[in-house]
């Protein structure tokens, strides 16, 4: 799971969301030499048949920053890696105003989103406006999930097949709303719970090639959970894996 691309000063990227294009190319080169990429339909079919290989991967991108089109799209196309980008139809052409810490990052316009399929990038929904879904009233939830799907279908000419929960957070009501709206799959972060809450591994600014490679191993999430509440363990792991220190 990626977010943005390019270099940002630490103050402009407090959550380490932006991966430099040089790092992205190194990561894509590593991936395509050691693993094989899947698009969404193949991923879901292999998952349905319990035929997913640990040597395969599905590349996803959240939020829909302009850097996806300007920097990442030509690169993933050159390496022949399909990608799945999640956007907020209600925020197209706007900025990342949902994050007070970095509210000014530009988002793709509707016209730019329409360009993405020619780079092999499928477009899915990230809520209407990136509001968190857990605990949301039913009518608001329908707007964030079903209405957002209809809005993106109007733009793309076909209904999007996948949904990503904002910040990866969901509850059972959110899952039901996604299923009822007709999506084929939904993606979370940290917690996986079936086809409508598929967890992902976040790639960020701090990742060295050592940490990037480590994150590809099955069971990495369990290792990460061991460090929760144990800062000494996280510091030790960062040193061992040569994770970058920023800021």
Can you put this structure into words, describing what you see?
This protein is an alpha/beta fold and 247 residues long. It has one domain: TIM Barrel. Helix content is 38%, strand content 12%. The chain has nine helices and nine strands. It has helices at residues 21-34, 40-48, 67-78, 110-115, 138-156, 172-181, 209-215, 220-226, 231-240, and strands at residues 4-5, 18-19, 36-37, 56-57, 59-63, 83-87, 121-125, 162-164, 185-187. The strands form four sheets. A three-stranded parallel β-sheet has the order 5-6-7. Helix 5 (138-156) packs parallel to helix 6 (172-181). It is globular and about 45 Å long. The mean pLDDT is 92.
Structural descriptors:
9 strands, alpha/beta, 247 residues, 12% strand, two-stranded parallel sheet, 38% helix, TIM Barrel, globular, three-stranded parallel β-sheet
């Amino acid at each position: 799971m990626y977010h943005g691309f390019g270099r940002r000063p630490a103050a402009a990227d407090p959550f380490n969301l932006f991966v430099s294009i040089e790092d992205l190319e190194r990561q894509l080169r590593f991936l395509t030499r050691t693993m094989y990429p899947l698009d969404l339909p193949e991923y879901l079919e292999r998952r349905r048949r319990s035929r997913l290989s640990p040597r395969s991967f599905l590349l996803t991108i959240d939020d829909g920053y302009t850097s996806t089109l300007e920097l990442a799209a030509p690169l993933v196309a050159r390496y022949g890696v399909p990608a799945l980008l999640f956007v907020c139809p209600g925020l197209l052409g706007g900025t990342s105003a949902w994050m007070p810490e970095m509210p000014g990052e530009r988002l793709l316009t509707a016209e730019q989103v329409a360009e993405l399929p020619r780079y092999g990038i499928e477009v899915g929904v990230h809520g209407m406006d990136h509001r968190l879904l857990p605990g949301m009233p039913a009518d608001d939830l329908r707007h964030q999930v079903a209405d957002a799907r209809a809005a993106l279908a109007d733009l793309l000419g076909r209904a999007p097949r996948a949904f990503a929960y904002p910040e990866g957070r969901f509850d059972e009501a959110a899952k039901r709303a996604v299923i009822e709206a007709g999506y084929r799959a939904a993606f979370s972060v940290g917690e996986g719970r079936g086809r409508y809450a598929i967890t992902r591994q976040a790639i960020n600014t701090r990742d060295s090639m050592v940490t990037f490679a480590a994150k590809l191993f099955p069971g990495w999430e369990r290792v990460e959970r061991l460090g929760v509440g144990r800062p000494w363990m996280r510091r030790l792991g960062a040193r061992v894996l040569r994770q970058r220190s920023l800021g």
